[in-house]
Amino acid sequence: MNAIESVLHEERLFPPPKEFSAQAHIKSLAQYKRMYRESIEQPERFWAKQAENELVWFKRWKRVLQWKEPVARWFDGGQLNVSVNCLDRHLDTPVGNKAAIIWEGEPDSVSKPGEERVLTYKQLHREVCRFANVLKRNGVRRGDRVLIYLPMVPEAAVAMLACARIGAIHSVVFGGFSAHAVADRVCDCGAKVIVTADGGYRRGTIVQLKKNVDEALKMTDERGRRLGRTVEKVIVLRRAYNEIHIEEGRDVWWHRELEYVTADCPPEKMNSEDPLFILYTSGSTGKPKGIFHTTAGYLLGAKMTTKYVFDLRDTDVFWCTADVGWVTGHSYVVYGPLANGATTVMYEGAPNWPEPDRFWRIIEKYDVTVFYTAPTAIRAFMKWGEEWPRKHDLSTLRLLGSVGEPINPEAWMWYYEVIGGKRCPIVDTWWQTETGSIMITPLPGATPTKPGSATLPFFGVAPEVVDDQGRPVSPNVGGKLVIRRPWPSMLRGLWGDMKRYQEVYWKEVPHAYFTGDGCRRDKDGYFWIVGRIDDVLNVAGHRIGTAEVESALVSHSAVAEAAVVGRPDDLKGQALVAFVTLKSGIKPTRDLREELRQHVTKEIGAIARPDEVRFAEALPKTRSGKIMRRLLKSIAAGTEINGDTTTLEDFSVLTRLSQAEED
Ligand code: PRX
What we know:
This protein is α/β, with parallel strands linked by helices.
């Protein structure tokens, strides 16, 4: 969306429906503003009150916040356990027998529906305690890292909560990532145990998770050392019943291990600042960053945002479609809903398998009331046609959410009209792996929305749009989005690399957390996120570091140099275009192009596979040898090349690139 278009859209204001506001936690803009002001003017008082009301503690904290830029300590001195907050606290209440997780597996075909499972809070508690004992039996102790590489099955949530119960730190790796990505992450966090499955289902095929783990554990670094040398045990869930290799002494079956344990597992008393999980995400260098979150602050953020942003009620059936391998799955499939005693839906498969109405079918079948998905999915649904949602009764829906990338007003309107029947407010929620929970968002009973804007900050969040010198810009002027003060669910650092944490987030703008996003704020103070302004792309709602894809490409023996840029894409937001120069003597062919795309899939995963590979004789560089990405972006987008190109080392490179038709 360009600036003019978005300014036009600002004319459209959607006030919260009156009936919605009447029942909402926050009922008016004035109430939101009052609470927001309190959260900013007296943050410690505000957060102490929230921590007391929302969480159960073994021991109360001594200090609400200790801030020594860039490291925050929240609720220091306090002790609690995340699994107790998500499970035990509900057991003796009416929530105990309520569905905690409703799960649906991927169907085989149109006529053969997927499996269904419902776990009540009591059942989930039992499963978590049993698996926590399995982890202990396999040597996992407080502070150890456990890598979880599972499909979207309830056991993924069970494994995460089991880690939390015994104080182990989980690192969930999305099932679509390759063996290589698993190996890198295992190595970086020094995982002691891997929890995986024989396979997972995706669009009718089996994803070979265990095979990838086997491969990952054989991989070595440049010095010949095994990347997975810290791994002592691999716990394997039987899911796909496919044949797999079992390594004696290292690999054990989940279901067999359960035979040796009881369901009695007292929770570990964790300190507020003990790490809860590490989640890897792409940055501007070739190596993914291990974002880590701690116990109390993260949980408070996840719990409060789920309650207020989704205006949670006891009767809600909440469905966030994200995979647990992403932060959205952590905060809004597992921790946020469960901490609130809500019913959370998990679905294993793809939105269009076996037919494009999977999601609508599930909403109808389980009476989903709150639905949270990504713009890229909404745009795909638009393309597949209205007839698919029209076939289903979606009248139970009362609130819709969007996350992961800017939502274009056209998709917003379609979501509002076709899925929400013009009665459901839409919450466009801006946040990041680093922020742990939602940061900029409407509150559905309070905030009038504008299609395409994430609107206003959540409680305690102080965002600002600044120029290159860090000065606030005027309304409607674009700049960098920063956050001015610490918030409870903020990342505490990069695992094992606090120096990089400081450099990536706290150097760009003095005394502010730099988000990496471009943004403008309109005259009403509404935030309009433009997208990444660093070397990170947002492809179908997933963060892809260009440097990561480039280093995957140059690891292919035919490639000399590679530069990856984004080009606008109607469906995915951005598509990946790779410019590649080959080693001398190697001919650019169609086969090689396909081979390079496959190579990236193998190195990282299908989500990073370039949409286009363009061969060039050379890459345009400045005199100092920097690749001119701006230029490549224009070429990739097919737009005119403008701007100053006089520093180009070799003008002729440009023409060659534009015409680089290799076959
Ligand atoms: O560029 C922003 C975009 O997604 C990035 C964060 O990606 P990740 O850490 O993978 O987390 C995704 C889910 C929280 C941000 O820097 N982004 C996320 N939500 C929005 C968004 N861009 C615009 N509008 C949003 N609502």
